[in-house]
Design brief:
The protein is built from 6 helices and 9 strands. The chain has helices at residues 3-18, 31-38, 56-63, 76-85, 123-132, 160-167; strands spanning 47-50, 69-73, 94-96, 106-112, 134-145, 147-149, 156-158, 171-178, 190-197.
Length: 198
């Protein structure tokens, strides 16, 4: 990804948050991710939420006593909005950076609308890089759109067959199924994924 493309993306997303053009934002944690978090027992897991936006997942994790949660986003406005809303979150765990330039390691990556926000030409790179960010036995868990959506601007959609091609070189697919507990506007349009790093 060239510097000019990175800068364009940064400007695009910063603009979206500054003008509050965030129609994909549901205003709370999505039910499938909430239900997944509810069954986690190890509060010491090191968790990354890439392209975190308003990061309702991180707020929920904090309320459930997970302290080792990290957020990464291009948009300073998104991260500032989050810390104003959730002032108890550790500021040093907010990372304003390009996901593809990030190199820490984690036990768990939570995927919520970031994959559908990046240009589809970078999806294989996302699969490879997310795997590199995970420790041994690390997992990528979250939601992917199971719908065509847009081809010219985010959010971009896709389907299970396409996603399997991206992820199988890097992950063992434990779950990639249509969600049964999506919010009403996304019913029958989401896949829940639980992928184990190979």
């Amino acid at each position: 990804m060239g510097e000019s493309k990175i800068e364009l993306d940064r400007i695009f997303w910063e603009n979206k948050y500054q003008t509050n053009e965030i129609g994909w934002d549901i205003g709370h944690i999505s039910t499938p991710i909430k239900d997944y978090i509810d069954q986690l027992t190890n509060k010491k897991l090191k968790i990354l939420i890439p392209g975190c936006g308003n990061a309702y997942e991180a707020e929920y994790l904090l309320n459930k006593n997970f302290k080792n949660v990290f957020l990464i986003d291009f948009s300073k406005t998104a991260l500032n909005n989050f810390i104003k809303r959730v002032p108890l979150f550790q500021k040093e765990n907010l990372i304003c950076k390009d996901f593809f330039q990030h190199n820490e390691t984690y036990d768990l990556i939570i995927e919520q609308t970031f994959f559908c926000a990046i240009n589809p030409i970078f999806r294989k790179k996302y699969a490879a890089h997310s795997s590199n960010l995970l420790k041994l036995n690390g997992k990528l868990v979250g939601l992917l759109f199971n719908d065509q959506l847009n081809t010219d601007k985010p959010p971009y959609g896709g389907n299970k067959e396409e996603y399997i091609n991206y992820f199988t070189p890097f992950y063992q697919i434990e779950i990639m199924e249509k969600t049964y507990n999506s919010i009403a506007p996304r019913e029958d349009r989401e896949l829940f994924i639980k992928l184990l790093k190979k």
